[in-house]
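Input sequence (165 aa), recorded before submission:
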Amino acid sequence: MTRHLLAALILLATLPCARAAGESAPKPFERGSWQRLLHEHAGHPTLVHFWGVTCGPCKVELPQLGRFMKDHPGIDVVTISADLVPNLPDATKSMLNQAGLGSAENWIFDDGFAERLRFEIDPAWQGDIPRTMLIGRDGTITTIEGSAEMTDLNKWSDAQAATTR
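Predicted structure, token format:
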């Protein structure tokens, strides 16, 4: 019995090392998560991307955002899976990892009332994805409906970098 307990403790001790690579499960996005996210990223340029596992354009855009995150370490990148199909955390995590976004701050809608979550984010949002919100250092939010052009994201990132000089 002592050997089994010791083996279990060793196994548990290695789990944090597996997560050290930065690939963890998406956090549950619930009521109040949007305000918490804004508060935690206040003063930092932040790209927030809403997407879904069942969204065709999202599948194309995710790897581009993975490259953007790698090329722009000064930008906080947050993804939020806003899929209306429930219980897709494994597929969500897999897609994020394949796109190079496994180490980003990742969330997944975790409320049966998705309309309420969307309303907290933007009362005018009807739920269309992909959707990207660029939050500047000063808190200014620019919303991109549909797929974002990487040239526009690069220009925004350059403008954010210029405000620190």
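Checked by second reader. The helical segments are 2-19, 33-40, 56-71, 89-98, 114-121, 150-162.
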